[in-house]
Design brief:
The structure is a single chain. With 205 residues, the chain is α/β, with parallel strands linked by helices. The protein has one domain. Strands 5-9-10-8-6-7 form a 6-stranded mixed beta sheet. It has a 4-stranded antiparallel beta sheet with strand order 1-2-3-4. Strand 2 and strand 3 form a beta hairpin.
Length: 205
């Protein structure tokens, strides 16, 4: 996939940072709980090699080193490429032509699904901002909850660069113009996220 960005500003504005703090708090809280469990069940690390990239499992997460602008970057994923390579990709992507990139979701989802949306949004944001150097803004598909009262309302129908997160089956990546929809039930959503990141990092070609 080829991304085209026509503007240079990078980073996050203050409201987006505040909004994402909620996601990041949930992200690390869940990581902490799951890491304890995974370390207890699997004390020995696991290593997977894929297209000359070496992935090491540490605390239930997969780490590898990537060269970005001739600098080493330690990237962390929920899944390794072999676990994510069969996530289907459908449609056609024309590239992100405008900034910021909106990461949007439906605020009406149940609390049991919200934590997976939080994990997905956190992982995407960390990679898109720090590693891929794009501007990101958190958004909602509609304004029906307090958390979305001061957020942009963005859907794939808008003339914007959009990543839409859906915590429901099927596990897939749907491409439509300058919108990417990542879907999957519960942790399967994270598998779709990692599949997209592997594509962007050219780990899966």
């Amino acid at each position: 996939m080829t991304e085209e960005i026509t503007e240079e500003p990078k980073g996050l504005n203050k409201p987006t940072i505040i909004f994402l703090i909620i996601f990041i708090i949930v992200f690390f809280a869940i990581v902490g709980v799951l890491s304890v469990r995974w370390k207890t069940e699997s004390p020995a690390s696991n290593v997977v090699e894929y297209n000359y990239f070496k992935f090491e499992e540490v605390g239930g997460l997969w780490q590898t080193n990537i060269q970005l602008d001739n600098q080493p970057y330690e990237a962390i994923f929920r899944f390794n490429p072999k676990q994510a390579e069969n996530v289907s990709i459908k449609g056609n992507f024309t590239g992100f032509k405008t900034t910021p990139i909106y990461i949007t979701f439906d605020p009406d989802v149940g609390r049991d699904k919200f934590k997976y949306l939080a994990l997905a949004a956190s992982e995407l944001t960390l990679n898109v901002v720090k590693a891929l150097n794009y501007t990101v803004e958190a958004a909602c598909t509609k304004n029906e909850t307090d958390i979305c009262s001061d957020r942009p309302i963005v859907t794939c129908a808008d003339d914007a660069s959009v990543i839409y997160l859906v915590s429901d089956a099927p596990t897939q990546i749907k491409l439509e113009g300058d919108c990417i929809t990542l879907s999957g039930e519960n942790m399967e959503l994270l598998r779709s996220v990692d599949r997209l990141l592997f594509q962007w990092y050219k780990i899966i070609k």
